[in-house]
Task: inverse folding
């Protein structure tokens, strides 16, 4: 469910899911603050960050972004976290096949228990580490296609495709009809 301020301005809850260490917090910090700090152990924590995307048709989407403080380790807590989310961004690390398997687990969980109209995005992060790639892009493309979801590879480090990720999600949100 999206919330609406008016017909031109959407406000939506977005959650990030995925293995610990895949770069969820770095994606958020890159998108919201334009920063990447490889040394920081910053956890965005319980509060959320927000950022607004303006689309060409002059509508805006304000994302209220829920980043976990490591609760992704406790699967039982997940439903509390993604309840009411209009968007779930499921992240894996392109150098980690385990994290890709875990992403598929989260997607199944969201398909079973998430909002029926939830927009799902599959994100292969750390694309800058392509020399150590162990998840072929084609595997993720095929998986995403089968599951009717959007897929993109990003790098929070170089900023590659970070804004595109959120813009594409904004475009795919169901629009309220008045
Ligand atoms: P989280 O546990 O999913 O929130 O992961 P973090 O955002 O804390 O990132 C985990 C580690 O991966 C940190 O050491 C980051 O510096 C590193 N990292 C995150 N994104 C990228 C990226 O796009 N490229 C590279 N090379 N490292 C990244
Ligand atoms: Mg984190």
Result:
């Amino acid at each position: 469910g999206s919330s609406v301020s008016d017909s031109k301005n959407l406000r939506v809850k977005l959650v990030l899911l995925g293995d610990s260490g895949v770069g969820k917090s770095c994606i958020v910090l890159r998108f919201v603050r334009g920063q990447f700090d490889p040394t920081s152990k910053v956890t965005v924590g319980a509060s959320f960050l927000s950022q607004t995307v303006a689309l060409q048709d002059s509508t805006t989407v304000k994302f209220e972004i829920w980043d976990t403080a490591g609760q992704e380790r406790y699967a039982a807590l997940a439903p509390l976290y993604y309840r009411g989310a209009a968007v779930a961004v499921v992240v894996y690390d392109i150098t980690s096949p385990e994290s890709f398997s875990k992403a598929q687990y989260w997607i199944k969980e969201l398909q079973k228990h998430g909002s029926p109209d939830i927009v799902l995005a599959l994100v292969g992060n750390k694309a800058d580490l392509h020399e150590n790639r162990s998840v072929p892009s084609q595997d993720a493309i095929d998986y995403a296609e089968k599951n009717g979801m959007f897929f993109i590879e990003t790098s929070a480090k170089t900023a590659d495709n970070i804004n595109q990720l959120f813009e594409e999600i904004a475009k795919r949100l169901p629009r309220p009809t008045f």
The first strand starts at residue 3 and ends at 6.
